[in-house]
């Protein structure tokens, strides 16, 4: 889905000399869920998207339940390790001297937030390939609230506690009329980074593919590598 939505951007990135790699999230979301209404179990459908996948889940009981995503309360993101392993495996295939940018939309942007923090902590590529991550592009996302038993505090919580920001070059893209992830969340995510760059478009919860955005992304990447 991401590849089809970013086809124009990918074409321009390749022309500019960049290589694009699309990773598939590991967790398949169910098409139906069972909920209780007035004490009785009722089966409901979860939209029309077949083969929809996620980087992590919010509920052990219902993989499609994302009602807690924007609660801004600490929680454990289920299945996050599988996604981190997938990114690490990909980065291991990259040249040792290559620098990588990450690009995520919606929950994918929140996953990029987690990757950003881990990349800052990973100082040696031999110890953790996440150290290859040099910059992040986050579209219509929200700050991570992941907390796994205190061993890995959510980036936003830890940053607030230490009054520090993520020193990762970042570009934050969001829509003025986004109702799925209101832009107030994207602004909070941007505020977790040092000197975040902002690009606001006039649409909703979508990945725009207009020429202006493509040029902005390429300009951002060029400034990172310079």
| Major pleated sheet | 4 strands, parallel
Rg over CA atoms, rounded to whole Å, is 18 Å
Low-confidence stretches: none
Note the beta-strand portion.
15-25%
Summarize the structure in words.
The protein has 226 residues and is α/β, with parallel strands linked by helices. Helices cover 32% and strands 18% of the residues. It has seven helices and eight strands; from the N terminus they run ααββββαβαβαβαβα. The chain has helices spanning 2-5, 7-15, 80-92, 107-121, 155-162, 183-190, 211-225; strands spanning 27-28, 32-37, 40-45, 53-54, 100-105, 133-139, 169-175, 197-201. Strands 5-6-7-8 form a four-stranded parallel sheet, sandwiched between helices. Strands 1-4 form a two-stranded antiparallel ribbon. A two-stranded antiparallel sheet has the order 2-3. Strand 5 (100-105), helix 4 (107-121) and strand 6 form a beta-alpha-beta unit. Helix 2 packs across helix 7 (211-225). The mean pLDDT is 87.
């Amino acid at each position: 889905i991401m590849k089809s939505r970013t086809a124009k951007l990918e074409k321009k990135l390749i022309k500019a000399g960049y290589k694009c790699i699309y990773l598939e999230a590991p967790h398949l979301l169910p098409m139906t869920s069972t909920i209780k209404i007035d004490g009785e179990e009722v089966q409901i459908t979860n939209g029309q998207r077949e083969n929809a996948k996620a980087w992590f889940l919010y509920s052990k009981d219902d993989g499609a339940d994302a009602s807690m995503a924007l609660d801004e309360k600490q929680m454990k993101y289920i299945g996050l390790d599988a996604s981190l392993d997938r990114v690490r495996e990909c980065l291991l295939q990259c040249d040792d001297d290559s620098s990588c940018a990450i690009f995520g939309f919606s929950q994918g942007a929140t996953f990029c937030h987690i990757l950003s923090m881990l990349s800052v902590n990973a100082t040696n590529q031999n110890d953790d390939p996440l150290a290859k991550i040099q910059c992040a592009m986050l579209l219509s996302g929200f700050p991570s609230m992941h907390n796994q038993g205190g061993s890995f505090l959510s980036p936003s919580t830890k940053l607030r506690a230490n009054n520090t920001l993520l020193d990762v070059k970042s570009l934050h893209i969001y829509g003025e009329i986004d109702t799925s992830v209101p832009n107030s969340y994207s602004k909070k995510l941007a505020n977790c980074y040092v000197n975040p760059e902002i690009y606001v478009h006039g649409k909703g919860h979508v990945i725009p593919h207009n020429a202006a955005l493509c040029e902005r992304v390429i300009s951002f990447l060029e400034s990172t590598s310079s």
